[in-house]
Amino acid sequence: MFKVVAHGDDMGNNYVDNLAKIAHTDQDRYIVFRRDACLMKVLPCWNGIIIENKLRSFLKNLCNYKGLEKFINLNRNSKYRTLEVDWTSTFSCLNCDINNNETSVSSSKTKAQKVHLLIEEIPTIEQMKKSLLDLYDGWMCPICGLYDETFNHGGLQLTKFRLMYGSFGFELIELGNSFL
């Protein structure tokens, strides 16, 4: 660490420089050990740094951060690297109806559906073409029959369908599905 000569006569700057120098040379001075640290035979460390908070919450946070990093680094999620996303609120919405003390198939399925909706991968015709092009090549939107059924177009058509037919249209669809 070196001092900038231009600020040599400023008392406040000298004080701050001294604090920074002490902080960088004597880092072990600020480690606060837990009360039960003297009872521990080994102190848990991560990358050479002593873990000062509860080990279980540290591991939970570490797994959450690594999972988020893997999610963002997937090629299909590259758009989230440039967007300012409030991940705390996002995960709160994804987990809002899931008990954190149990695992169930229905809650996993619900969360998977929410994630697919978030990343715009609901099964539209365009999504199906990616895996089964021979089967779905040339298919258009099943509601209007004029355009490709993309995520945005499908939502727009569904809104128009609701406005035109209301709940009666959905009852007809459910009735038709019951015969399949």
TrEMBL record:
GO molecular function: metal ion binding
Listed name of the protein: Uncharacterized protein
UniProt KW Metal-binding keyword: yes
Entry keyword set: Metal-binding
Species of provenance: Rhizophagus irregularis
Superkingdom field: Eukaryota
